[in-house]
């Protein structure tokens, strides 16, 4: 099963960034996205940020993942 998770951007260093959700942080590639800023929410899959989402979408998705026992 593949799963993409909303994570918030905490640091940006070139095409790489540090993202966090629920106290877990990861280094991910940001090269697929434009205009990413610290504080933005992104969908992360296999170590790559694949899309940018707004705060409401991130909150709703995280709620569903928690209710499903996935995270």
3D structure, described in words:
Helix content is 18%, strand content 45%. With 71 residues, the chain is of the alpha+beta class. The longest helix is centred in the C-terminal third of the chain and has 13 residues, at 55-67.
Topology diagram in text:
Layout: E1 5-13, E2 16-21, E3 24-29, E4 41-45, E5 48-53, H1 55-67
Antiparallel strand pairs: 1-2, 1-4, 2-3, 4-5
* Percentage beta strand: over 45%
Reading the helices and strands in chain order gives: EEEEEH
Major sheet attributes:
5 strands, antiparallel
H/I helix tally:
1
Cα Rg: 11 Å
- Identify the overall geometry: globular
Straight-line distance between termini: 14 Å
Low-confidence stretches: none
Structural class determined from secondary elements: alpha+beta
Percent of residues in helices: 10-25%
How many E-type strands?
5
Estimate the mean pLDDT confidence.
Answer: 94
Main sheet strand line-up: 3-2-1-4-5
What structural keywords apply?
five-stranded antiparallel sheet, alpha+beta, 71 residues
Give a brief outline of the structure.
The chain has one helix at 55-67, and strands spanning 5-13, 16-21, 24-29, 41-45, 48-53. It is α+β, with helices and mostly antiparallel strands and 71 residues long.
């Amino acid at each position: 099963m593949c799963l993409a998770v909303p994570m918030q951007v905490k640091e940006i260093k070139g095409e790489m960034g540090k993202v966090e959700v629920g106290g877990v942080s990861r280094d991910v590639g940001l090269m697929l996205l434009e205009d990413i800023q610290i504080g933005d929410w992104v969908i992360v899959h296999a170590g790559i940020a694949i899309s940018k989402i707004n705060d409401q979408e991130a909150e709703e998705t995280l709620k569903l993942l928690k209710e499903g026992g996935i995270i």
